[in-house]
Specification:
Layout lengths: L1 E4 L3 H15 L15 H17 L3 E2 L1 H4 L6 H4 L6 H23 L2 H14 L2 H12 L7 E7 L8 E6 L2 E8 L5 H17 L9 H8 L5 H24 L8 H4 L2 H4 L1 H15 L5 H12 L4 H5 L4 H16 L3 H30 L12 H10 L4 H12 L1 H13 L7 H15 L5 H10 L1 E2 L2 E2 L10 H9 L3 H7 L2 H15 L98 E7 L2 E7 L5 H12 L21 E2 L2 E3 L3 E4 L29 E4 L11 E4 L11 E6 L2 H12 L5 E9 L1
Parallel strand pairs: 1-3, 2-4, 3-5
Antiparallel strand pairs: 4-5, 6-7, 8-9, 8-16, 9-15, 10-16, 11-12, 12-14, 13-14, 13-15
Helix pairs in contact: 1-2, 1-5, 2-5, 6-8, 7-8, 7-10, 8-10, 10-13, 13-14, 16-17, 16-23, 16-24, 16-25, 17-19, 17-21, 17-22, 18-20, 19-20, 20-21, 21-22, 23-24
Length: 755
């Protein structure tokens, strides 16, 4: 399967609008449309939903064929797509003036991307090995490849389809660059090859079904994820043959971290095939043998880091009590655990540094400003790895700490600064292995556990509380079967001589234990540089253990994963629970009644606020208006004095929709130097005009900007915190006059009355 470069202005607009509405990675990314968006623009969401009922997850190919949004409706040949197309056309027409100007900023980047893809992916270099790996024939089919500068993320890639067949692919060349871009393109070509409908002898899908049959949900899920991993590993291998420093997308995009057990098995055997050590049939057979040794659940369910923590703390207890068996087990496991945790945090730190794309760095030291700018060129996880290699691990982590603690404060960086500082101390050998592991488990970022991005952390807090309270029974309920057996064995022996050894016998229910299966970690084979390079992958075997063993990341007894007797094999696939703690300030000031007056050069606007429904938002507004809350002036980077809103403009005025203010920059991108979470009341909506609400750039990114609606705006429901309303007709008239004003309107000051 080959590709030819193609370009479509309408597709560029559609993907850029989809990214603006529902596909940005967060409030930190560059935005081009003012928020809240107009009702016409928001019709795009409904249009996509209407299309999805017919075309699924892809986009209809006629989207790329239209020269202008207005031409879309003439290209529709399926009546089921017509209603959605009308909505999409209206939305694109409304957003086109702004987004067209934004897209022009990336023309040189797009041209460079075409050159990079051609350099890496010459057909004679990738076509034959890709087809051989996937077991598909080269039918001579050619796909349209759209390198677009703005696409929704994740995944920043996708298909164009017609009659259920992929006719083209798109890849975000702003997020993916260089070898990572080539990897992403090749991965999409591989998926398109598998979805072509042509299933020759030896086709990867057929081979996996033949070797691992079964129609239960977990069996199907295992094959789907394994196929994804094999395609990603193959693409990464072919690109790495051209660039030895390439970081494969399986690592960058997280498949390796979400499914470490499955990835470890796949990479172990598939890499040998790609290297030419064994043939493809041998690799698939060996892979199937390993994967059928345990239930599919073992490879598909997410890792439970609370089990890792319980194992670690209990082995420490046993070792301190003189248990030599536990001490030896901890000694063998600890280097691998350190390497795995350091690698995980290294990947997440690189990801978090990408949050500061829009950070204002002009007030910070030049080296730090250059570092933040550079790390946000393309995917930050890739750039971070390169910069860490070039600058040295210690210096790079120091700059990461300063980035989190400096301009990153506005985006929750104060919680990530100690994490980067902790990893730096470990890298510089200032932190012993056991202290490092303990801090990895106990430190948290702004939303909770450090491991919530890829693992199930729903019970991590429970384990940490048990450790703090020395509730050993509770720890035992989370530990692996091997650690439970070590614990109870030691307890039985010690109790004969020391009745009060570590408390009374445990009453926690445990399943009968079977002999522990041998594991790959039976000797102290720690990676030589595990303590110096956070990206070292020497600990990959950590989660490749058999069920029930130390560090397996699961509390179940090994019998629970017997492939022939697993009672949950036919159950629905378990969904990972993401536990997010909303970072509200602890310094809330409670008000019973709050009114405010916006004094403008068009007249006064009287407002009634709702502290009962949005206490944090009202407290924030009052603090900024009166100057009682500390704020940062975005113009100078220094701490502001007096009322934040004094002398600002209503920078956005849309007749019949909103007036918006609260930005000292006057661009719609400024804030007071921090963010607070949303407080969206379930019974409050925008059905009536003249509602006062806080603007944002995405979930939980409220800062200083506010807006007042001039008409019902139901498309805003559920997206913005409503914390007040205009209280009288004269004030409503002033708001309408401000919206109609052809020139900027000044907000002179805000007076607040509280009780």
């Amino acid at each position: 399967m080959k590709f030819r470069h193609h370009r479509s202005t309408t597709l560029d607009l559609a993907l850029a609008l989809q990214r603006e509405l529902i596909g940005r990675a967060g409030s930190w990314e560059l935005t081009f449309l003012p928020r809240p968006v107009t009702p016409e623009t928001d019709l795009f969401r409904a249009g996509l939903k209407s299309w999805a009922r017919t075309v699924g997850s892809g986009l209809p190919v006629f989207l790329a064929a239209a020269r202008r949004p207005e031409d879309l409706i003439t290209l529709v040949d399926d009546d089921r797509l017509r209603p959605g197309t009308e909505l999409v056309t209206t939305a694109l027409t409304a957003a086109a003036p702004t987004l067209t100007d934004a897209l022009r900023l990336f023309e040189e980047l797009r041209k460079q991307a075409v050159v990079e893809v051609n350099d890496f992916l010459a057909p004679e270099r990738y076509l034959a090995p890709l087809c051989a790996a996937l077991g598909s024939a080269d039918t001579g089919r050619t796909l349209d490849l759209h390198l677009v500068p703005l696409a929704p993320y994740p995944p920043a890639t996708g298909f164009l389809t017609a009659a259920g067949q992929a006719t083209g692919v798109y890849v975000d060349c702003r997020r993916f660059r260089g070898s990572t871009l080539a990897d992403a393109v090749l991965t999409m070509l591989g998926w398109a090859q598998l979805k072509s409908g042509h299933l020759p002898e030896g086709h990867l899908s057929t081979e996996l079904v033949r070797r691992m049959p079964g129609g239960a949900p977990y069996q199907r899920r295992l094959r789907v994820i394994l196929t994804k991993i094999l395609v990603e590993v193959t693409a990464g291998y072919l690109v790495r043959a051209v660039d030895s420093a390439h970081r494969p997308c399986a690592d960058v995009l997280g498949t390796k971290w979400r499914y470490p057990r499955l990835h470890a098995v796949a990479e172990r055997h598939w890499s040998r095939y790609l290297d030419g050590d064994i043939d493809r049939d041998e690799a698939l057979t060996a892979m199937a043998r390993d994967l059928t040794a345990h239930s599919p659940r073992w490879f598909v369910d997410h890792v439970d880091p609370s089990s890792l923590a319980a194992d670690f703390y209990l082995l420490e207890w046993l070792t301190a009590a003189g248990d030599r068996t536990a001490g030896a087990r901890l000694f063998r496991w600890l280097p691998h655990l350190c390497a795995e945790l350091a690698g995980h945090l290294d990947n997440v730190i690189g990801n978090e540094l990408g949050h500061y794309e829009r950070a204002r760095t002009q007030h910070h030291p030049q080296e730090l400003a250059d570092f933040i700018t550079e790390v946000n060129q393309g995917d930050s996880r890739v750039t971070w790895q390169r910069l860490r290699r070039e600058l040295g691990h210690g210096r790079a982590l120091q700059l990461a700490t300063e980035a989190f603690a400096g301009p990153g404060i506005e985006f929750g960086g104060e919680a990530w600064a100690p994490v980067a500082a902790m990893v730096r101390r470990y890298v510089l050998h200032e932190l012993p292995d056991r202290v490092f592991v303990d801090q990895c488990f106990t430190l948290e970022h702004n939303n909770g556990s450090l491991f919530d991005k890829y693992h199930d952390t729903s019970t991590m807090r429970e384990v940490l509380d048990a450790q703090a309270a020395t509730d050993l029974d509770k720890l035992l309920t989370h530990a692996s079967a091997e650690v439970r057996e070590l614990w109870h064995g030691r307890h039985r022996i010690s109790a004969e001589h020391h009745p009060m050894w570590l408390g009374p016998p445990s009453t926690a229910p445990t399943a009968p234990t079977a002999p522990t299966a041998p594991t790959a970690l039976t000797a102290p084979t720690a990676p030589p540089d595990a303590g110096t390079d956070p990206s070292g992958r020497g600990g990959a075997g950590l989660l490749g253990h058999a069920p029930g063993t130390v560090g397996c990341g699961d509390r179940s007894h090994p019998s629970a994963y017997d492939p022939s007797h697993d009672p949950l094999r036919d159950s629905p696939v378990r969904v990972r629970h993401t536990v997010a703690r909303r970072p509200f300030s602890s310094s809330l000031k409670i008000y019973r009644v709050v009114t405010a007056v916006l004094h403008t050069n068009h007249g006064d606007i009287h407002l009634t606020l709702r502290p009962d429904e949005a206490p944090y938002t009202v407290d924030n507004f009052v603090g900024l208006a009166t100057g009682s809350r500390t704020w940062t002036d975005p113009l100078t980077g220094t701490t502001g004095e007096g009322g934040f809103y004094d002398g600002t403009d209503f920078h956005r005025r849309v007749p019949g929709f909103v007036v918006q203010g609260g930005d000292r920059l006057g661009t719609g991108h400024g804030s007071a130097g921090y963010r607070i979470p949303d407080e969206i009341h379930p019974e409050r909506d925008f059905a009536r005009p003249f509602q006062l609400a806080m603007a944002n750039l995405g979930r939980d990114s409220t800062g200083s900007q506010f807006f007042i609606t001039l008409a019902p705006a139901p498309h805003l429901d559920g997206h913005y915190t409503i914390f007040g309303e205009v209280t009288d007709a004269p004030s409503e008239k002033v708001v309408s006059e401000i919206a109609d004003s052809p020139t900027a309107v000044r907000l002179n000051r805000v007076t607040v009355s509280t009780a």
